[in-house]
Amino acid sequence: MAEGDRNVAVLVGSLRKGSISRRIAKALIKLAPEGLHCEIVEIGDLVGYNMDLENNVPAAWAAFRDRLRKAEAVLFVTPEYNRSVPGVLKNAIDVGSRPYGASVWEGKPAAIVSMSPGAIGAFGANHHLRQSLVFLNMPAMQQPEAYVGHAAELVDDNDDVKIEGTKTFFTDFMAAFEAWIERTARN
Description:
It is a single chain. Helix content is 37%, strand content 14%. It is α/β, with parallel strands linked by helices. It has a 5-stranded parallel β-sheet with strand order 2-1-3-4-5, sandwiched between helices.
């Protein structure tokens, strides 16, 4: 990472190795401006949040929290499960928000890209996630919005965007996110 670059944690709301969400996340990372250092932070090893475990914090929780503390911003890339965010993503949010008063999310600029194989683009997941970000005091980028429909058709086997209009939109989205981080980051 070069001096002056912004460290962006990318959280993918699907655990499947070849998921549409993961492929879109990789495409977005490739299209990020040079000043954004984006890295997927894995959430699959986080045991379900249980306050009893705070006395003997699981190693995966500690590593996740440490990684997120170093991030200056967070990009959420998520599918929609039952008109909301996947449970694994909600669990990651919960793990990072505790113990109370020590949230790793506090004040970090955020952006959300939601996608689905259908036409709606995971609108419900996008807005449920925004509700959590309000409580977590994460300023979420409002525009441009990214509800990506027919997502399975958008990237090739190398996680490159196949459709020029979508590539332009993703490039513009990531540039807007960089500008959002510069306006809202606390450091």
